[in-house]
Amino acid sequence: MRILVTGGAGYIGSHTVLALLNSGYEVVVLDNFSNGSWEALLRVEGLTGKRITLVEGDIGDRGCLDHLFAENAIDSVLHFAGLKAVGDSMADPLTYYVNNLAGTLTLCQAMSCADVHELVFSSSATIYGDGHPMPLHEGLPSGRPASPYGRSKLMVEEVLRDLAGSDNRWRIALLRYFNPVGAHPSGEIGEDPQGAPNNLVPFIAQVAVGRRDELVVYGNDYSTPDGTGVRDYIHVMDLAEGHLRAMVALSERPGVSVWNLGTGRGHSVLEVIAAFERAAKRRIPYRIEARRPGDIAAYWADSAKAQAELGWWARRSLDEMMADTWHWQQGNPCGYQRKLGIATG
Ligand code: NAD
Ligand code: UD1
Questions:
Q1: Which of 15, 145, 293, 333 could form a disulfide with 240 if both were Cys (CB 3.0 to 4.6 A apart)?
Q2: Would you tell me how many other CB atoms lie within 10 Å of the CB of residue 271?
Q3: Atom 27 in ligand 2: which residue has the minimum CA distance?
């Protein structure tokens, strides 16, 4: 089977490409490299000993998509391409809607013309919004996500439901990720944020490796066991494997299927710091500051549906997530630029 992976040069996409190649799939990656890395794909080829067909292009470019589908007999599409910085989406919502929403519409049009109707979409737990009892299960009504980024994910979910309702050839998975962290255990590929990381684990990793002086913990006055925010962190390789399970399951599931991809367990910021300190065998300096606007106290997944329907559950512990993050960060203190010899600030 030949799989199109949009955004395959990014963090989650590259780990999923690796899992696909190791499972015997052929892979075509479409990426515009707005936040992806050639080096990641070269390393995936090195790790797997397999070749990737790479198309440099944009999901919003219909001509590029039509050419790609004409040249490659695609069976299924894993759609990771998108912009994901919450703060940027507030500053520049139109760019987010054009990229994430309009780009997905164009992709679906091109798929339809090419008679490809199987799609796995990268959604997010952010679509549940605030105010639900925990854990979050797929049957809950979606809420109002706190940012244009989150709303672009919810809008795409709605569009894909309409699409599946209009034509029963479509088989679509909406995968709602919780908090992806970690790296491939080889330490060869991992998360490589541009600029200062917005998310907790990449920030801790950069403090540990000496690129930043200290972590700021946003609030210790939440109604959680230690007062800091609680999230459901999931290892990126568990997430990647969840995509393969979902894709296989889709062959017998017309319409839209929704699955949470989380561990079902919440961990506080202080627990994450402690786990990282154990993995890296060094102290992570931090100070407490006020809550970050828009943050909520705690959320985690009900992961029973994916377990029952896909036979998938997250196997890797928080300690493994931190150990693999550290292995990657220590070997690549400046991310993918290290082996290319590019100086970084
Ligand atoms: P990433 O930025 O590392 O990867 C996204 C990739 O898509 C990049 O390689 C980028 O160059 C590419 N891309 C962006 N816009 C494109 C376009 N218009 N055409 C072609 N390529 C394009 O992000 P990631 O963390 O790997 O996330 C993958 C997907 O999962 C995204 O859709 C993201 O919104 C979603 N998601 C991520 C998280 C997370 O915490 N990382 C959580 C929930 C959902
Ligand atoms: C963020 C996004 C969310 C996205 C998710 C995917 C925001 C507001 N939300 O969620 O849309 O779906 O990533 O992983 O960006 N923290 C610190 N110090 C830091 C960074 C974070 O204390 O420097 C805390 C936060 O307050 C939170 C926890 O760590 O309690 C996790 O934060 P983060 O990694 O940014 O993820 P989310 O906020 O859950």
A1: 15
A2: 16
A3: 229
Closest Cα to atom 4, ligand 1: which residue? 10
Q: Which atom of ligand 2 is nearest to the CA of 291?
A: 26
0.85 cut: is pTM over it? yes
**Cis peptide leading into 135, omega within 30 of 0?**
yes
**Cα–Cα distance between 345 and 343 in angstroms, integer?**
7
Q: Which ligand is nearest to the CA of 176?
A: 1
Domains, the chain: 2-181+233-261 (3.40.50.720)
pLDDT, one tens digit per residue, over 126-136 is: 999 999 999 99
Kindly compute the dihedral angle of the four CA atoms of residues 301, 305, 307, 313, in this order, to the nearest 10 degrees: -20
Ligand 2 atom nearest residue 150's Cα:
11
**Contact (Cβ atoms closer than 8 angstroms) between residue 126 and residue 89:** no
DSSP string spanning 275-313? HHHHHHTS---EEEEPPPTT--SB--B--HHHHHHH---
DSSP 8-state code for residue 136: B
